[in-house]
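User: Good morning. I'm curious how zinc ion would be positioned relative to this chain. Could you predict the structure with it bound?
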Amino acid sequence: MKPLVAPSILAGNHAALADSLREAEATPGIEWVHIDIMDGHFVPNLSFGPQTVKNLRPGSKLFFDVHLMLDNPHLYVEAFVEAGGQNVTIHTEPDYPHLETLKKIRELGATCGICINPGTSTEDLQPFLEHVDLVLLMTVQPGFGGQKFREDVLPKIETVAKWRADNDYPFRIEVDGGVDDGTGLLCKNAGADTFVCGTAFFKAPDKLAFTETLQA
Ligand code: DX5
Ligand code: ZN
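Assistant: Good morning! Here's the predicted structure, ligand included:
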């Protein structure tokens, strides 16, 4: 699986998100951007809505990787795909029709991902593994950028990577939260291939070197 860094524009200037997107896109090798959607309920913070995604879409060729941290993502997947989301990831934790929602994302023409928080068992991913294009393992409790990477998630990456290898599943394994060129390499060694980097990417003095370290 080709390794990919997905800069998270949560760490950008929210009054000039298009600039953050351009900054990411100007870095050779960057193909994805990660867009965090928060509802102030599933996570204790608010971020962007479909209108933000729609307005960013024409200015960028990057693959829009949308991470829905919502209690009711099934009510919003259509809006985010129509706005330009190309992958939409939803969490296992809230109560809503997960499988139906994953299928709906694909029917709408996007790829779909399933995500667990650091405290959620990898077993909870099992029913969805054959139905997803991406598995996202949170390496912080979601809600805010700039938190410390949780090393206790590394064995969970190894578990999911083993399931993927044993079953020839085609999904990506993405990590999100506190990922920099050091912690990202730990994730890579554990089996991750897709690295969401917010603070670390936007603060990196040499974004190309940063990206190459993880995408090598
Ligand atoms: C956390 C978000 C992340 C966030 C990561 O709730 O899901 O995508 O942007 O930010 P950093 O890389 O700063 O931890
Ligand atoms: Zn995210």
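Residues 4-215 form a domain with the TIM Barrel fold (CATH 3.20.20.70). The radius of gyration is 16 Å.
Let me know if you'd like a different ligand tried.
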